């Protein structure tokens, strides 16, 4: 390309950049921001920010100002944050109170700490940032604002879509349930091997029960062929989310329905399980039923040619409570051609997610590391996926020490995957040390803990 052509092309690109909807929107706010420079901060810097919003406590500023602070988000509070990292953040903010919700405002955050005029506020006014979670960053608030948001959800649930566990029974929409599920499963992985786990699972079931029974299961249950009603996508996804929570945390009716589906499939050799919940039903059936069901799923895994179905069936095999079967699956995955090579990592990870298989997967991972590293070590994504997937559920002092010893013995501290895994496991162990006792105390005192 000639020099003149390069200049023309560069000039056109700059004109397009200035005329882009984002640039025009920023100019309407009195801002001139270089789009390329802004995007570089998001695409070239590691990680993402956490934004803390608080009402201004300074006597020099009126009450309609807020303070916004950004910093690099890290799972571990003890890890050293890179204070030089800054993002240009489009932050949407709304304010409201028990009787009304104000309009949404957009402010741009460029510095570590900034103050912005947002609207008239008093002690009863709450703030909500990153409306509808459209920005790729986390938001935190001062304690007083968290309390106001919780109160708002209970008094007027339509006012703010926020994922708080105690509010779930009142929530009819899919997205808050989906967000809550992710948080609950994070807690579940920390608590699922503790002596008091039933306190947590019973509490979750209490929150889920009413909405689960109201939504029910898809209408094509065994014996009702042809009677399939088309529900909206959001309704289907909410129904699936509730079924997954109910079956995962031990709802007896959910377990019975899953067993009924599996039994019907075995007896009729017709799979009438709705496709969007097959993974839940398969996993629940394998975990509750006998070894014959595991062998049936294993047979179906080999006989089906559908790639998506094959993947679901293979993951279901890792749900068994039988450690002999889990160990058998681990060995078959690596030492035979019965499991496709690209699926071996998923088998090990999913066995590790099963509380009954966690120790097996962690032990197997360490014992077979040389083979696994030789096979997948050059594929950075696969290697990182394996390391992160096997270690993210470790949460005891013993497992943390085993991880440290493993890293040191194999000289694995150089790459990004192992230090990242170590950070997460240290965070898991720290959570147990600092919060586990208080968390269970809170569950015992909560009025929603008693299932009655």
Automatic annotation (TrEMBL):
Domain ERAP1-like C-terminal: 162-422
GO terms, molecular function: metalloaminopeptidase activity; peptide binding; zinc ion binding
InterPro entries tied to this protein: ERAP1-like_C_dom, Peptidase_M1_aminopeptidases
Pfam family, one: ERAP1_C
Top-level taxon of origin: Eukaryota
GO-annotated cellular components: cytoplasm; extracellular space; membrane
Coiled coil: none
Single Gene Ontology BP annotation: peptide catabolic process
PANTHER family named among the record's database cross-references: PROTEASE M1 ZINC METALLOPROTEASE, THYROTROPIN-RELEASING HORMONE-DEGRADING ECTOENZYME
Family classification: Belongs to the peptidase M1 family.
Protein name: Thyrotropin-releasing hormone-degrading ectoenzyme
Lineage: Eukaryota, Metazoa, Chordata, Craniata, Vertebrata
